[in-house]
């Protein structure tokens, strides 16, 4: 069974950008596109909000889906597109939908069927919690840069993110830049421990070179470069994302990135990066 790229829409500018991004990605991968809209009745269960009829909510949801489908068919007439009007809270709806998809694409914020869902609330609940890559798209558009940026460390999620990034670069025919951000360990109870920064840098660069050699064998047509940089991963990745078409991160990390708690880097990237951000977990490539 061929799994589709799933994109959530509520008709907002960010959702419209997400639909456009998802359509392009589905076309490159030869996958169908499934556009979903959630009818969330929870806000209307409070007495202070006017209660629309079921027909009004359903009509509005269908209108959003019809407009999204029409926009996709205008730009990608050969793409197979289906739509679905779903009931429930947006996060729960998308988690269920993920089981049947190859990836999920959402806008950075929305309204209507995704009322009140700002960037942080959706990404916090979905990043690392769905078994497929999650791509968050902002409404701002920019000229293509021909570059995919991916963050890497020693974790399994970073390997999954690398594979996703190389596939995207291969399909787009663009460059790939892998960034390995590292920091010297700080021992609070043994401040006398010191490190030779040149030796540490050399070790990190050797590791990056080994990773690059492995992926170059698998993706010989991708123009890839790996860099080991001394610094915190968030500003390193966000700055690189300024000139990228896509920033790819694992849902969690450790090793060179150093004691990163679940989702801290990916959440920061989602909040601060201006380009689309893909959050990939290990099961994204295993399933």
UniProtKB/TrEMBL annotation:
Location of the UspA domain: 1-138, 148-281
Cited InterPro entries: Rossmann-like_a/b/a_fold, Universal_stress_UspA, UspA
One Pfam family linked to the record: Usp
Family as reported in the entry's similarity comment: Belongs to the universal stress protein A family.
UniProt-recorded name of the protein: Universal stress protein
């Amino acid at each position: 069974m061929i799994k589709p790229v799933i994109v959530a829409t509520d008709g907002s500018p960010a959702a419209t950008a997400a639909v456009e991004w998802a359509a392009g990605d589905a076309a490159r991968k030869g996958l169908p596109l499934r556009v979903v809209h959630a009818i969330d009745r929870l806000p209307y269960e409070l007495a202070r909000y006017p209660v629309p009829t079921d027909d009004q909510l359903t009509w509005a949801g269908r209108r959003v889906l019809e407009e999204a489908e029409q926009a996709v068919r205008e730009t990608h007439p050969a793409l197979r597109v289906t739509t679905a009007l779903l009931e429930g809270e947006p996060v729960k709806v998308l988690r269920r939908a993920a089981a049947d998809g190859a990836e999920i694409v959402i806008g950075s914020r929305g309204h209507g069927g995704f009322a009140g869902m700002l960037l942080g609330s959706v990404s916090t609940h979905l990043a690392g919690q769905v078994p497929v890559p999650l791509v968050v798209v902002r409404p701002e558009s920019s000229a293509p840069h021909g570059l995919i940026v991916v963050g890497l460390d020693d974790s399994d999620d970073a390997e999954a993110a690398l594979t996703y990034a190389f596939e995207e670069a291969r399909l787009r025919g663009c460059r790939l830049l892998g960034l390995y951000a590292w920091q010297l360990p700080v021992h609070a109870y043994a401040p006398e421990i010191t490190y030779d920064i040149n030796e540490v840098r050399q070790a990190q660069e050797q590791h990056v070179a080994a990773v690059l050699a492995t992926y170059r064998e698998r993706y010989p047509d991708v123009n890839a470069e790996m860099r080991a940089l001394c610094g915190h991963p968030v500003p390193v990745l966000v700055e690189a994302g300024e000139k990228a078409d896509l920033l790819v991160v694992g849902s969690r990390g450790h090793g060179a990135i150093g004691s990163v708690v679940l989702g801290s880097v990916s959440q920061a990237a989602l909040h601060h990066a201006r380009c689309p951000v893909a959050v990939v977990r290990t099961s994204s490539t295993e399933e």
